[in-house]
Amino acid sequence: MRVSLPAKTATKPKAIIGVSLKMYFGYQRSVDYCRDVAGIAFAHPAIQSGDIELFVLPTLPVLPEAARILGTAGAAAGAQDIFWEDEGSFTGEVGGKTVAELGGRYAEVGHAERRRIFGEDDTVIGLKTAAAYRNGLTPVLCVGELHAGSPEEAVAQCTAEIDAALNRAQSLGPAGRTIVAYEPQWAIGAPAPATPEYISAVITGLDAHLRTLPGQADSRVIYGGSAGPGLITRLDSAVAGLFLGRFAHDPKALKTILDETTAWLAAAEATV
Ligand SMILES: O=C[C@H](O)COP(=O)(O)O
Known about the structure:
Structural class: alpha/beta
Number of strands: 8
Bound molecules: glyceraldehyde-3-phosphate
Shape: globular
Order of helices and strands: EHHEHEHEHHEHEHEEH
Strand order of the largest sheet: 1-2-3-4-5-6-7-8
Helix content: 40-55%
């Protein structure tokens, strides 16, 4: 049966919901997950209107299939990491050029696990951010403090990480839209996220900083770190959305989050 997608508007998304599957699922389970998510996205008015931008970052071998499945439903896929060069003598690495060829639209860079386990520093993350821009991929630039402290301390740490990545990237070529994923490292893999007050305070600071940077007018900040159903409706409108991990492994939970995001957007519009 041939189906027609509802026409998408050209408006900017009002919220962003991303999911990283990390290395939790194998090939078939990842494909099945993307099929379930595509079914939800296809039927979801806020995805079809373009109000919510939805992407999934599966384990890399799944990317071409994920891009195809999600792309037919108004969502998209991307990579959890890219190398900083596009091609050459770099055994085992995958460049942004290949990710784009495979249908990827996003490249996550600088996740806390890449920083901690693989020793990636601000220089590497800046180079990878540049590689994302160069290949037409939207970088999902992860930043976040190691230990819980005050929101002011978190803002200082994260703005330094944002500046280091973007300054390095912009020294190498034109920048583009960036999705900053604010993920306090202490809240990743935890039983619960940071408090809504803490998240809202830090992201308000990061968003204000992003507004001062050249070429970042369309860039937004989303929250990750044990995020799941019940969180977004408690966040300030400076937060642009969520970067989900374990608590979106059940597609039904993701649908709940999309419904909550729709209600959250409507409530924000009603107060304007
Ligand atoms: O990439 C996603 C984040 O690291 C969050 O993961 P988590 O929600 O499982 O803590």
